[in-house]
C-alpha cells in the first residue's frame, strides 16, 4: 500500500506548515503562539471526567479521569473541603465504605487498594480479583477473593483489622444489612466436584453448611438477611431440570421449594430464574420458561411461508425465535404458585420499585404484533388488568385499551393514565373502581414532550406530581383538593422547562414542606440551572443559579450522549456533586450545598491546548415566516476579515446543544466532528428543523435554505463554499435537499436513503416492517403509501435525481438494518447513469461506521470537503477511483498532482 509513503509526506508537510504557522504576527507587529489544530489523532486520547460519587457524610468525592493515562483511567479521591487528594491509576472499580472513613478499589493487575480517607495511609493487597463491602452496626466489613489456586475469600473488619479466611470459594455475597455472609464452595470428592452452600454471621466467624450437591446457581438473599433462595440444575433422564431451593435462618438445611411439577406450573413450562423476595418476605418472585420446541428435520423442506394472516412477519418470527419467559410468584409457606404473566403479557416495569408489591399491573397484547403496526394490526391491540401477587385474582381495566402510558401509585391505591384522545390525565381508584379526570379544567397543555410524565408522588399516595410542557403540578388523585402548580406557571411565562432534579424523587414519596430542587432549561437562551421550592407552598420557585452552562436537561433527546448528569446527593447531609460544562469548558465536577455557590473538584481542560471553537446562538426567519434557532460554530482564531467555508449539519433540533461540550470523536458513526472541522478553518451551522406531518422535507428545505440565506449576510461567510452533511435521518434530508437547490457546493450523505417508496416496504434489522416508521414515526408521512402516494413521491430524492448538481459523497454499510444498502445503491446508480459527480464509500457492518472504518471515512470526508469547499487538491480515490482488484492494496488517499478536479461522468452527449 502507499499509505506509509503518504503518511511520511503528510508528516513532513504538516511539520513545515506548523513551523510557518506556529508564530503569527498580529496587527501590532508582535508575535504570538498559534495553538495546534485538532485532528483525528486526538480522538482516542481525549480525557474526560466520569462516574462521580460522594461519601455518605458529604466530606469526600470520588471520580475517574478517563484516558489518563491514555487507554486507561485514574481514580481521584479528594476532600470536598480542604486540600486532601490522592490519585490511583488503572482502577476498574471503587467504593466508599458506609462510615465514610475508607475507600476500596481494585485494578486490572489484581491489586486491592484500601485508602484511609484524609490520610496518606494506603494498604495494598496483591492477587485480588474481586471485593464486596458491607456495613454492620458500628463495624465495616470487607470481603475479597484472592486469585490463587485455593480461591480464598477473606473477610476483614476495617475498624479492627480482624480477618477470617475461607478456602475453595466459587462465589460470595453479603446480606443487605451486612450481618450475613453466604459462601458458595467447591471441593473435590473422589473424582466428583461437590458444591456446598454455607451460611455465616459476620463478627463471630461461625459458618454452617446448609446445602451440598451440584448445579447451584442464581443465589438470592432477602432484604432482612434471614432468607435465601437458589436454583439447582440437575440431570434427570438425561434432561436438565431446575428446582428452587429455600433456606431460613435458624433452620438446619435448605429445602426444595419447587420443581417443574409443582402445582401452578403448566405443562410445557419449566423453572427459569429467581428474581427477588417480596417486601414482606412471604413470597418469592421468579420466572417460568417455555421449553425448547422441536428442532427442524435436516431433511425437511427449507421454505419460509409468508402469509397475509401472519400477525408478525416471518422475518421477525425468526429473529425473535426462542423460548419466552413469564413472571410468577410462590407463597413460601403455602408453596402456592401464581403465574403472573400469560402469553403476550408483561408486568409494568416500575411496579416492583414501589412501596407495595402485592398487586401488579399487566399490559396484555391481543397477539404477537409489534408496536410499529399499532394503528392497523389487531394483534397489537392493548388491554390492561391488575393481578394480585398473593392469590392471582384479576381486576380488568378494560377502559384503558390502547393507552401506552399507564402507572400505578406507590401504595397501589391508584392507577394514573394519560388519555391521548382527550389529552387529559385520569386516576382509577383500585378499591372503589372510580375513574376521575384529575386535570380537567386546568388551563395548560398536557401533550407530552420527550419523557415528561410523572415526576413522583406524595406520601400515602396523597398526590401525584405531573409535568406539563413547562411546569410541575401537584395533583390530588381523588380530585377533592385543587391542583397546585408547584412552579406557579413560571415556566410557561418565561419559556423555562422545569424538571425534578434528584433521582430520589421518583423512588421516595415526598412529604409536605419538603424541599424540592428543580433543574431548569430556558428554551430561548438555552441557559440551564437550578430552582428551589417547598412542597405545598404557593408562589414562584426560588432561582438558585441560571447561566450559559449545561448541568442536566433531563429527557431531552437532542443533547449529545453522556452530556447530562443528575446531581448526586450525600446520603446523610445536603451536600451534592454536579457536573458543569459549556462549549468552551470541558465538563468538570463541582460540589455544592445550596446550588448557588459551587466548589470546583476536577480541573480538566484539554481544549485549552488546541484551536478550539466558540458557539453562537442565532435566530432567523424560516422561509415560511416562523422563527428558527441554530448554532454557529467558529474557530477560536476566527478572523472576521476572512472568508470561511460553512458546512450545514442537521438532524432535528440542534440548538439545545448550545452549551454542550462537543468532545472530538466519531461517536455517532458518520457525522462530522464539529470541533475538528471548526479548528481546521470551517464554520459549522446546525439549524433546527420543524417538520409538518405529511410533508416533512418541506420543513427541512425551509430551515436549511433560509439558514444559508441568513448566513450569507455575514461578510465572513463564503457563499460559494457552503456544504451539507447528515447521517441517517439527516442523510435522507441531505439527499432531498440537493434535488431542490443548487446553492451548495458539496454534500455528504451517510447511511441514508433516497427512495421512500421502496423504503416504505422494507425491513428493519430485527425483521420488522418499516411502514410504521414512515406513517407515524420519524418520517412523519401521516398516512400509508396508498392513502397519500403523492407525499412519498414528492419527498423521494430518487425521483428527482436528474435535478442534482451538487457533488455528493455517499457512505453506507452493507448490513445497514435501518436504511437498507439496496436503497442507497438506487441513488448512486441513478447519479452514475445521469453523469453526476458522486462517490459511494461502502463498509462492512450495520448502521454507521466505527473503529478503523470510521477513521477511514473521516479522512475521505475531510478530503472531499477540503477539495470542494477549500479548493485543495483532490485525492486519487476521487479523481481516478479504486479498482476492485486494488481493494486493500491502494487506498487512493494520495493527493492527485496531475488531475486538478474530478471530471465529467460517463454519460455520452445526447443521452
Automatic annotation (TrEMBL):
Signal keyword on record: yes
InterPro entries: AB_hydrolase_fold, Peptidase_S9_cat
GO molecular function, one term: serine-type endopeptidase activity
Residues in Peptidase S9 prolyl oligopeptidase catalytic domain copies: 699-871
UniProt keyword list: Hydrolase, Signal
Keyword Transport annotated: no
Organism superkingdom: Bacteria
GO biological process: proteolysis
Pfam families, per the entry: Peptidase_S9 (PF00326)
Signal peptide: 1-19
Name of the protein in question: Prolyl oligopeptidase family protein
Organism per entry: Chitinophaga niastensis
Amino acid at each position: 500500500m502507499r499509505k506509509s509513503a503518504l503518511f511520511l509526506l503528510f508528516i513532513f508537510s504538516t511539520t513545515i506548515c506548523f513551523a510557518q504557522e506556529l508564530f503569527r504576527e498580529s496587527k501590532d507587529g508582535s508575535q504570538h503562539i498559534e495553538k495546534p489544530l485538532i485532528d483525528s489523532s486526538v480522538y482516542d486520547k481525549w480525557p474526560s471526567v466520569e462516574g462521580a460519587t460522594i461519601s455518605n457524610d458529604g466530606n469526600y468525592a470520588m471520580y475517574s479521569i478517563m484516558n489518563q493515562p491514555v487507554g486507561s483511567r485514574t481514580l481521584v479521591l479528594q476532600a470536598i473541603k480542604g486540600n486532601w487528594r490522592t490519585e490511583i491509576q488503572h482502577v476498574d472499580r471503587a467504593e466508599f465504605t458506609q462510615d465514610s472513613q475508607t475507600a476500596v478499589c481494585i485494578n486490572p493487575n489484581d491489586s486491592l487498594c484500601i485508602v484511609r480517607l484524609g490520610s496518606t495511609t494506603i494498604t495494598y493487597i496483591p492477587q485480588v480479583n474481586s471485593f464486596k463491602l458491607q456495613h454492620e452496626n458500628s463495624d465495616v466489613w470487607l470481603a475479597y477473593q484472592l486469585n490463587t489456586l485455593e480461591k480464598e475469600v477473606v473477610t476483614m473488619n476495617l475498624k479492627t483489622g480482624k480477618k477470617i479466611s475461607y478456602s475453595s470459594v466459587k462465589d460470595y455475597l453479603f446480606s443487605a444489612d451486612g450481618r450475613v455472609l453466604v459462601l458458595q464452595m467447591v471441593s473435590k470428592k473422589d473424582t466428583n466436584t461437590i458444591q456446598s452452600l454455607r451460611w455465616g454471621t459476620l463478627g463471630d466467624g461461625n459458618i454452617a453448611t446448609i446445602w451440598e450437591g451440584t448445579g447451584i446457581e442464581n443465589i438470592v438473599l432477602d432484604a432482612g438477611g434471614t432468607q435465601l433462595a437458589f436454583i439447582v440444575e440437575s440431570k434427570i433422564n438425561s434432561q436438565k431440570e431446575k428446582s428452587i431451593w429455600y433456606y431460613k435462618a435458624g433452620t438446619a438445611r435448605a429445602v426444595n421449594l419447587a420443581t417443574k411439577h409443582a402445582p401452578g406450573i403448566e405443562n410445557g413450562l419449566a423453572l427459569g430464574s429467581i428474581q427477588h423476595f417480596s417486601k414482606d418476605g412471604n413470597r418469592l418472585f421468579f420466572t417460568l420458561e417455555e421449553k425448547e420446541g422441536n428442532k427442524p428435520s435436516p431433511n425437511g423442506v427449507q421454505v419460509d411461508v409468508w402469509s397475509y394472516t401472519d400477525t408478525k412477519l416471518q422475518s421477525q418470527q425468526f429473529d425473535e425465535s426462542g423460548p419466552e419467559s413469564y413472571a410468577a410468584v410462590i407463597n413460601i409457606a403455602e408453596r402456592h404458585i401464581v403465574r403472573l404473566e400469560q402469553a403476550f403479557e408483561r408486568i409494568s416495569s416500575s411496579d416492583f420499585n414501589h412501596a407495595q408489591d402485592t398487586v401488579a399491573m399487566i399490559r396484555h397484547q391481543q397477539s404477537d404484533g409489534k408496536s410499529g403496526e399499532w394503528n392497523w394490526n389487531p394483534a397489537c391491540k392493548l388491554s390492561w388488568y391488575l393481578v394480585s401477587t398473593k392469590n392471582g385474582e384479576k381486576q380488568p381495566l378494560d377502559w384503558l385499551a390502547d393507552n401506552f402510558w399507564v402507572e400505578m401509585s406507590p401504595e397501589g391505591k391508584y392507577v394514573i393514565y394519560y388519555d391521548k384522545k382527550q389529552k387529559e390525565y385520569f386516576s382509577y381508584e383500585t378499591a372503589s373502581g372510580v375513574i376521575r379526570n384529575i386535570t380537567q379544567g386546568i388551563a395548560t397543555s398536557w401533550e407530552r414532550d420527550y419523557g415528561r410524565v410523572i415526576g413522583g408522588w406524595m406520601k400515602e399516595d396523597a398526590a401525584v406530581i405531573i409535568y406539563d410542557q413547562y411546569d410541575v403540578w401537584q395533583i390530588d388523585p381523588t380530585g377533592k383538593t385543587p391542583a397546585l402548580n408547584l412552579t406557579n406557571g413560571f415556566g410557561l411565562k418565561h419559556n423555562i422547562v422545569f424538571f425534578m432534579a434528584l433521582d430520589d424523587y421518583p423512588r421516595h414519596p415526598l412529604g409536605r414542606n419538603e424541599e424540592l430542587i428543580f433543574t431548569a432549561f430556558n428554551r430561548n437562551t438555552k441557559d440551564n440551572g437550578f430552582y428551589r421550592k417547598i412542597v405545598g407552598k404557593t408562589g414562584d420557585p426560588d432561582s438558585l443559579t441560571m447561566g450559559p452552562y449545561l448541568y442536566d436537561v433531563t429527557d431531552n433527546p437532542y443533547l449529545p450522549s453522556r452530556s447530562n448528569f443528575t446531581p448526586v446527593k450525600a446520603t446523610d447531609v445536603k451536600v451534592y456533586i454536579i457536573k458543569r460544562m459549556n462549549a468552551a469548558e470541558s465538563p468538570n465536577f463541582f460540589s455544592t450545598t445550596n446550588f448557588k455557590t459551587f466548589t470546583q473538584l476536577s480541573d480538566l481542560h484539554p481544549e485549552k491546548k488546541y484551536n478550539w471553537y466558540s458557539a453562537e446562538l442565532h435566530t432567523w426567519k424560516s422561509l415560511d415566516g416562523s422563527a428558527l434557532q441554530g448554532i454557529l460554530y467558529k474557530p477560536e482564531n476566527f478572523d472576521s476579515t476572512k472568508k470561511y467555508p460553512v458546512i450545514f449539519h442537521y438532524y432535528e433540533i440542534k440548538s439545545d446543544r448550545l452549551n454542550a461540550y462537543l468532545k472530538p470523536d466519531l461517536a455517532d458513526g458518520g457525522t462530522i466532528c464539529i470541533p475538528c472541522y471548526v479548528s481546521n478553518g470551517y464554520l459549522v451551522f446546525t439549524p433546527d428543523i420543524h417538520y409538518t406531518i405529511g410533508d416533512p422535507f418541506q420543513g427541512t428545505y425551509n430551515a436549511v435554505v433560509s439558514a444559508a440565506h441568513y448566513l450569507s449576510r455575514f461578510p465572513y461567510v463564503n457563499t460559494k463554499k457552503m456544504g451539507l452533511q447528515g447521517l441517517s435521518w439527516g442523510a435522507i434530508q441531505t439527499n432531498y435537499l440537493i434535488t431542490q437547490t443548487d446553492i451548495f457546493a458539496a454534500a455528504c450523505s451517510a447511511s441514508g436513503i433516497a427512495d421512500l417508496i421502496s423504503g416504505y416496504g422494507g425491513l428493519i434489522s430485527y425483521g420488522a416492517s418499516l411502514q410504521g416508521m414512515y406513517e407515524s414515526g420519524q418520517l412523519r408521512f401521516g398516512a400509508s403509501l396508498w392513502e397519500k402516494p403523492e407525499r412519498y413521491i414528492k419527498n423521494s430524492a430518487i425521483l428527482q435525481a436528474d435535478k442534482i448538481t451538487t457533488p455528493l459523497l455517499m457512505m453506507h454499510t452493507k448490513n445497514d438494518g435501518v436504511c437498507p444498502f439496496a436503497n442507497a445503491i438506487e441513488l448512486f446508480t441513478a447519479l452514475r447513469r445521469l453523469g453526476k459527480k458522486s462517490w459511494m464509500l461502502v463498509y462492512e457492518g450495520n448502521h454507521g461506521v466505527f473503529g478503523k472504518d470510521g477513521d477511514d471515512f473521516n479522512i475521505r470526508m475531510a478530503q472531499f470537503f477540503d477539495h470542494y469547499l477549500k479548493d485543495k487538491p483532490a485525492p486519487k480515490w476521487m479523481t481516478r477511483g479504486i479498482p476492485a482488484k486494488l481493494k486493500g492494496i491502494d487506498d487512493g488517499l494520495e493527493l492527485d498532482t496531475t488531475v486538478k478536479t474530478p471530471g465529467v461522468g460517463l454519460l455520452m452527449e445526447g443521452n
